[in-house]
Amino acid sequence: MILTHRGKSPTIDPTATVAPTAVVCGDVRVGPGARILHGAVLTAEDGHVSVGEDTVVMENALVKARAGHDVRIGDAVVIGPHVHVNGAEVGDECFIATGAAIFPGAVIEHGCEVRIRGVVQVNTRLTTGTVLPIGWIAVGTPAAMLPPERHEEVWAIQQDLDFSGTVYGVDRTTSMRELLRRQSEFYGAHADDEVIG
Question: pTM to 2 decimals?
Fold first, then answer.
């Protein structure tokens, strides 16, 4: 399904393929030879998504841009099943494995691997050729890579990365009630989306 969002429509190269059950919404550019598989969602909400040449976005992946956090996925990249790329950059020839999560402001340089269920936190950079092990968390710049059982160390670094401000545009003291009121209002704009393909 191809949709306009906030007056912007996707641009899909004629050599690219978008599965009939995928969603491409808003200011999204899909490059030559790219493949967007079943159930994948690429949505640009006050941002821009760019998918490079010969990149494959696999089943049920979510690629989401937001204000101030465009998504750029380079050439010859695998975005695995159930991956979440939100407001981040992924360089050429990267492999992002099943269930990985990449948060706003993250930069994954050329040739990196984020293995199954790996997490790249907000405003974190993986330098060229880095391999993030299965289930590990990358946090900070330069990135510290830690297993999930070292959560307290992850949290100590993450506190300075401004998750709430980066992801939601609010400070950490904002109540869930207020945060979700704002999010509900923001996502309400999808009521005006139009199917164009």
Answer: 0.92
CATH code 2.160.10.10 for 2-195: yes
Which has the closest alpha carbon to 167: 49, 46, 26, 69?
69
Any idea where the domains of the chain sit in the sequence?
Answer: 2-195
- Written as tens digits, the pLDDT of the chain (197 aa) is 999 999 999 999 999 999 999 999 999 999 999 999 999 999 998 899 999 999 999 999 999 998 899 999 999 999 999 999 999 999 999 999 999 999 999 999 999 999 999 999 999 999 999 999 999 999 999 899 999 999 899 888 888 888 888 888 888 899 999 988 988 888 888 888 999 98
Structure tokens at 151: 């959560």
Which residue do the tokens 């993250």 mark?
106
Distances, alpha carbon 135 to alpha carbons 72, 116, 162, in Å? 23, 6, 22
